[in-house]
Fold this sequence. Notes:
By secondary structure, the protein is an alpha/beta fold. It contains six helices and six strands, in the order H-H-H-E-E-E-E-H-H-E-H-E. The protein has helices at residues 14-24, 47-56, 64-73, 131-134, 137-144, 174-185; strands at residues 78-88, 91-100, 106-112, 121-128, 149-155, 191-195. A six-stranded mixed beta sheet has the order 1-2-3-5-4-6. The longest helix has 12 residues, at 174-185.
Amino acid sequence: MISSERGLLEQVTISDAAIDLAQLCSAKSLSGVVCDVLNKKGMIANKLELENLSMELNLIMVSMKNLVVHQLRNTDLILRQKENTVPTKYGELTSIIYTNQLDDSKIIVIMKEKKNKTLPLPVYIDSVFSIGEAFEEKNIEKITIDGFGILIYKLNSSKESRLDSRNPFQLKESFGIFVEQILNDINITDPVIITNVA
């Protein structure tokens, strides 16, 4: 089996996991052995049996999900593309468009800065199918009722409505890592996260 060029950051398969793990271990050869482990009954061992075996043999056990999250956390995922001041009936808002550097998808940030620096900053996270949807009044009101806040929207395409277990960005943890990097980029240290993203 051959891994993809960007490994687990491109697709979540056992061959990509083997090569990424070899790279993380600084192995001389970027290759891995993929095999099933059998239990005493000759059946494929389940997770609990593998955990017990790893403890018995003093081996380190990691999951593909752990590897994906590690790779995402240690990669610069976002690129700030464009920043604008947007006049609205609620006052001026700042919009920033980020690009996911791995698949070129977009993330839209809309924010209204707070004047009272002692109050926690609400950060609303959701997904939309167009930039226009992000600027709908029902969404903008979320950050204008209290006079401050941030909206972070993942811009979905129609293709993304279908789940793909091989796509690292459909892991529950992955978008949270994007959000962390965005909040660091705009110097937000006291967010209160409110999300509709599963």
